[in-house]
Amino acid sequence: MHLSLASCTDLSLASCTEIVPFEKKVPFEDEKVLSYNSVVLRRSDLDLLEGPVYLNDRIIEFYFSYLSMLHPSEDIHFVTPTISFWLANSKDSESFINAFVEPLKTFKVVIFTVNNNDDMSQTDGGTHWSLLVYYRDTKTFVHYDSFKYINNWYAIKLYEAVKEHLSSTEGSGSTSEEFCQIRKRRRKIYPIAAMGPYFREHSTPQQTNGYDCGLYVMAIAGVICRWCIADLKKNHELLFPYIMEHVDNSVESTMRP
Known about the structure:
Layout: E1 17-19, E2 32-36, E3 39-42, H1 43-47, H2 57-70, E4 76-78, H3 81-89, H4 94-101, E5 109-115, E6 129-135, E7 140-144, H5 152-167, H6 177-189, E8 198-201, H7 213-230, H8 251-254
Helix pairs in contact: 2-7, 3-5
Keywords: Hydrolase, Protease, Thiol protease
GO molecular function, one term: deNEDDylase activity
Organism: Fagus sylvatica (Beechnut)
């Protein structure tokens, strides 16, 4: 079952959503419409949901924040599109990047976005979104691209930027006997995890148009969240979620208003 992005702006989420009161509205079209955790959406952002247009980073960050609330887990971390872009293109020192990435090592699953923009002066540039996910137990970065791996080069660029920082330790739970046994079983199935971190492309449902990549990113992120919470702890032999069984091109209609 797909989550409708339209439902995220419904008043039924009032407990975690702040609708801007009428008297606070700014007197021009691009008014602030919604505040959700730390994400602010304006009228121009919501207009993108009507399609047929490319979604921006604020819509994706909003949905990631929504998934974090809907599927709370200490094992999953979403890296915002803005930070993912910075990590892929930053000219800052390795020590500075490491200081940021260091806290991510404790998570089993870290979700990044990939954008085909490498111009730091154009933070709202690019024409395609995809997803890069780090699975700590298998030491693997998996790329999910809904348009014929068009973002492969950009995904590898992000992978190269963070792989050593993110995988240099196993995380806080790595010394437990249970974790060691799980890791041994998984390495029998997926032996390269003993060396890693590795990059791999994963089978991904393909979009039927040139602008709905953001919807696939959000739908796949939702599947990964549910898999991590419901399946990963029950089936230690399951290396990655089966995206193709849960996401198809119906998201192009069901996730827009």
